[in-house]
Amino acid sequence: MAAAYPNANIPVYELAEVNTKPFHIGSFRQEWLNRLEPTDYSYQQQDEDTFHANFVEETGVGAETMAELKSICSIDSLRCHPEDQQPDMEVVPPDPTLKTLIQRKRRQDYRASRKVTKNRHDIYADELERLTAGKRPEDVTDLIPEGEVILTINVYYPAVFEKFTYNRSHMTLLMTGSHSLAEFRDAICCVSDLQVCGEFSNTPDVAPDFISKDHYKSAFFFFEGVFYNDMRFPECQDISVTTIEWAKARNFPPFTQAKMEDTRMADLKVKVGFPYLYCHQGDCEHLVIITDVRLSHRSDCLDRKLFPLLTHKHRIVTQKCAVCHIFIGRWFTTNDQFAPSDPCLFCDKCFRMLHYDAQGNKLGDFLAYPYVDRGAYN
Ligand SMILES: [Zn+2]
Ligand SMILES: [Zn+2]
């Protein structure tokens, strides 16, 4: 098995063979609701005494055992420092055995070795989950109903970015069962959607009007033999038909089709832990893995409007302008007499100062292409 999976960065639970059998998400939710008491998934916090009384009744432990359990399981007993000492939260104790501390130490060492300081992006990433935990909506109609199902989904970098195939998932999103696949699609940010194709050295001002997302709106998800096409806009095409016809001609088991916008997450039949596909811009293919399906909890973010909820995002180093080294590259040029290299990357300001006069007339010979940095979405 190890030989088949040389990539140690992919955790064991995401290996191809480690997945559940296919199941229908809505039915899964219903099964849970049939078995649980409404108080089990209620957002109302049960008061502690009732909880303990129920616990004693269900387990049949005596009052003495209960008192002992309470003190042993208390958060106060979770310490890795002497009782009378106030610990420095930034310092990981030596030789930690707790996995969270081991990870934290590794991260701290990495930062120390690379002299990385926390910037606002890191702080934001760390905060992503904390900011939304337990968040309630201002308007009660936006409250996620009790007993709603929540899916955790990892979306990976497209395989074409070779550099990133060894990375962890690009982003992790939480979706509720009532959200549609189209809402899922809109939450996936990929730089291919922002790409501008064409040479614009004569008309640099019109370039932003040519964003791929506005021109090529077709996309599909592929789950368990079904292509879910985005057909929301008149210019959308069914781009799954080529594969379906190809499979039909070769006597493969038939694939079916449905519309992304008409399919809720709860309607899907899927395997948890299994790699599925999201395809857009013709051939930008992302793996999509559902890693968890569960009922909502009162400590979740309960504001429906904040979903699909981003809980993790991988950050990429941005490519800076070759002239100022400050701003992110927006243009690259070729055959450029002013450029130190071919191709050469410029920020918008340096590009225009170097290549056009005050009236905006092109100076000299060069070809200019809009450039969208992969880190632009950070
Ligand atoms: Zn993409
Ligand atoms: Zn610049």
Please explain how this structure is put together.
The structure is a single chain. This protein has 378 residues and is α+β, with helices and mostly antiparallel strands. The protein folds into two domains: 12-43 and 115-196 and 208-313, no CATH class; 331-377. It is built from nine helices and 13 strands. The protein has helices at 25-35, 48-59, 63-72, 99-114, 120-132, 181-187, 212-215, 241-249, 348-355, and strands spanning 23-24, 149-155, 171-176, 219-223, 226-229, 256-259, 269-270, 275-280, 284-295, 309-313, 331-334, 344-346, 367-370. An eight-stranded mixed beta sheet has the order 6-5-4-8-9-2-3-10. Strands 12-11-13 form a three-stranded antiparallel beta sheet. The longest helix has 16 residues, at 99-114. Bound molecules: zinc ion (ZN) (2 copies).
Bin the strand percentage. Answer: 15-25%
Ligand catalogue: zinc ion
Query: What proportion of the residues is helical, as a percent range?
Result: 10-25%
Give the termini distance in whole angstroms.
36 Å
Mean pLDDT over the residues = 83
Count of extended strands: 13
| Tally of alpha and pi helices | 9
Tell me briefly what this model is.
This protein has 9 helices and 13 strands. The chain has helices spanning 25-35, 48-59, 63-72, 99-114, 120-132, 181-187, 212-215, 241-249, 348-355, and strands at residues 23-24, 149-155, 171-176, 219-223, 226-229, 256-259, 269-270, 275-280, 284-295, 309-313, 331-334, 344-346, 367-370. The longest helix has 16 residues, at 99-114.
